[in-house]
């Protein structure tokens, strides 16, 4: 038994080192990945989070995407505002500024006379 490796043993050692290197690189890449499980009821904003991550961390939305989502964002904003106003009335909460009552009445009228979803972008 000598101190040198045979050609076959050298090839096996080289393959082993290459595999180890690949495993190490894959491990470093996997350590950078973040996986997130979004749980929640329907319409609770799970897809909104994903879209916001796309805007912040990727290239953002294309012009067509913006045209497509603009009416949806408007609609969601108005519907959410209307829900808050209804909840304030239901709970008997007062507005900090009495002049907001006029704004609320305008918003209420606007949400019943305009359909954001049908608006052309």
From TrEMBL:
MF terms in GO: corticotropin-releasing hormone receptor 1 binding; G protein-coupled serotonin receptor binding; G-protein beta/gamma-subunit complex binding; GTP binding; GTPase activity; metal ion binding; mu-type opioid receptor binding
SUPFAM superfamilies with a match to the protein in the record: P-loop containing nucleoside triphosphate hydrolases (SSF52540)
A single BP term in Gene Ontology: G protein-coupled dopamine receptor signaling pathway
Binding-site residues, Mg(2+): 47
Region (Disordered): 102-121
Family the entry assigns: Belongs to the G-alpha family. G(i/o/t/z) subfamily.
GO cellular component labels: cytoplasm; heterotrimeric G-protein complex
Protein name: Guanine nucleotide-binding protein G(o) subunit alpha-like
Record-listed GTP binding positions: 43-48
Gene3D superfamilies linked: GI Alpha 1, domain 2-like (1.10.400.10), P-loop containing nucleotide triphosphate hydrolases (3.40.50.300)
Keyword Repressor: no
Keywords: GTP-binding, Lipoprotein, Magnesium, Metal-binding, Myristate, Nucleotide-binding, Palmitate, Transducer
